[in-house]
Amino acid sequence: MLETRKQSNPLSRSKLIGRCVVSCIFVIFTHLALSLIPRFFSGFSFLTQLAFSALLLLLLVGFGGWCRRTLLRVKASAPAFVFFNILFIWGFYVSVIRPAVSQLNDAVFNWGVVFLFIGLYSIITSDPGIVKNGSACSDQPMESSISQVDNHDEDSGLFMRLRYCKTCKAYIKALDHHCPAFGNCIGQSNHRLFLILLFGFMSTEATYLVCSLLFAAKSGILDRPSSELTLSESLAVSTILFTILQLLWQVVFVIWHIYCVCANIRTDEWINWKKYPEFQLVIPPQPGQSFTNIRFRNPYDKGIAENVKEFLALRI
């Protein structure tokens, strides 16, 4: 008998607050560090500054992780990092960018930020489709991800591909991946919400990019020498670079997930197909060969139209 269970949060309130504080400090430090790019590299092209910003972000993530683990021995919260990034960009927009944009752009961006806050809370607290077998320990994966449990959803009749998440230590219906940024698994019950939130992030970031470029054009900061830029003006340029970098990887990420929907495959299945027998096409050895060839196959692909229809039929 399959029972739905809620994810438990073992963190105490003090530890949770501590992680949020660390994440907030890291967000502020990151944006202040990025503001050094337009100040010291204004003579370089915009694409070069973008590349320097990407490199600096990678260095900050690596160095920050090392400092937290080795020196401070504290952990950060990825969802809190996402939250404080949104809050920082919104606060900077209201205090610096907003006077230079039209009322329409202002309304679109503010509503976009509100949507992100609501969506972030919803995805963090959502149930991705966690199940457990009444006779098995939920902390240990069973030998087979499918054969030892009921394969059909009693409510919708849709095929359930149960996959084990090592992070959550639970079985998830149609697990796609465990998302560190949202602190939750993405599975059958919240996959659509996940995609909607991704589109929300991209549209809100694109709106901020338009607003910040309008501010840059009116203030002329892109044409002035770096020595004349104030901190707020340097932050305006660095947040433009940061937003473009976010949009670049998010567009690729969304394209990948749209492909997965059209092919009816999950990210976890695509990466770990060798451990799922139903994805293995065994080709017996031919005359003169001494080995068995194993190739990838997708037994769930029913064609784009049927795959999308099945995806849309899943409950949020």
Outline the fold blueprint.
Blueprint: E1 2-4, H1 13-34, H2 36-40, H3 46-72, H4 78-97, H5 103-125, E2 130-133, E3 162-165, E4 170-173, E5 177-179, E6 184-186, H6 191-219, H7 231-263, H8 267-271, E7 280-283, E8 293-296, H9 304-313
* Mean pLDDT level: 82
Distance between the termini: 22 Å
Q: Helical proportion?
A: 55-70%
Count the DSSP helices: 9
Strand order of the largest sheet: 1-2-4-3
Count of DSSP E strands? 8
Largest sheet: 4 strands, antiparallel
The secondary structure category is alpha+beta
List SSEs in N-to-C order: EHHHHHEEEEEHHHEEH
* Uncertain residue segments: 1-9, 134-159
Shape type: elongated
Radius of gyration: 23 Å
What is the percentage of strand-forming residues? 5-15%
EC number: 2.3.1.225
Catalytic activity: L-cysteinyl-[protein] + hexadecanoyl-CoA = S-hexadecanoyl-L-cysteinyl-[protein] + CoA
Family: Belongs to the DHHC palmitoyltransferase family.
Keywords: Acyltransferase, Membrane, Transferase, Transmembrane, Transmembrane helix
Q: Would you kindly provide a written description of the structure presented here, covering whatever features stand out?
A:
Residues 161-274 form the Palmitoyltransferase DHHC domain. It catalyses: L-cysteinyl-[protein] + hexadecanoyl-CoA = S-hexadecanoyl-L-cysteinyl-[protein] + CoA. This protein has 316 residues and is α+β, with helices and mostly antiparallel strands. It has helices at residues 13-34, 36-40, 46-72, 78-97, 103-125, 191-219, 231-263, 267-271, 304-313; strands at residues 2-4, 130-133, 162-165, 170-173, 177-179, 184-186, 280-283, 293-296. The strands form 3 sheets. A 4-stranded antiparallel sheet has the order 1-2-4-3, with no helix packed on it. α1 (13-34) packs antiparallel against α3 (46-72), α4 (78-97) packs antiparallel against α5 (103-125) and α4 crosses α7 (231-263). The two termini are 22 Å apart. The model is unreliable at 1-9 and 134-159 (pLDDT under 50).
